[in-house]
Specification:
- It comes from Cephalopterus ornatus.
- This is MKROS protein.
- With about 140 residues, this protein is mainly alpha-helical.
- The chain is built from three helices and three strands.
- Strands 1-2-3 form a three-stranded antiparallel beta sheet, with helices on one face.
Length: about 140
């Protein structure tokens, strides 16, 4: 990724199926997301939510809001889909919804920065004669 194009966003179920939304509606895919940045949203200790996650995601993705004709590149897109699902889950937990800016600041930017640093290091190492030695245990 060179930073010059838009990113596509999806939400995974517990089996790695990625639910994503575009001008053709909601898609479910097991492949095509190999080069993605994962942003963990559910902590391992949230057992009850983990058990409900798949059903919530499937039910949410079938809503009328995500029909193809409602897609708008700027206002009703894949990011809107992901954030709306997150806010749907938060509301079921009695929590306040996240704004687009708040979600971006708290979750997306930190993971993006981490990935950017990794990619920068990887590119530098690829252009130099380096040998990486594992640390002794």
């Amino acid at each position: 990724y060179d930073g010059s194009s838009d990113l596509h966003v999806g939400i995974t179920d517990s089996r790695g199926m990625v639910y994503n939304y575009d001008e053709e509606g909601v898609h479910r895919a097991h492949s095509g997301w190999e080069q993605c940045i994962c942003i963990p949203l559910v902590q391992p200790h949230m057992v009850e939510l983990l058990q409900q996650w798949d059903n919530l995601l499937e039910e949410f993705s079938e809503g009328e809001a995500w029909l193809p004709h409602r897609y708008d590149e700027q206002e009703h897109n894949c990011y809107t889909f992901a954030l709306a699902f997150i806010n749907h889950v938060l509301s079921r937990q009695g929590k306040q919804p996240l704004s687009k800016g708040e979600f971006t600041e708290r979750f997306v930017i930190p993971q993006s920065r981490r990935a950017s640093r990794y990619l920068t290091l990887q590119r530098e190492l690829a252009h130099r004669d380096c040998y990486i030695v594992p640390l002794p245990e």
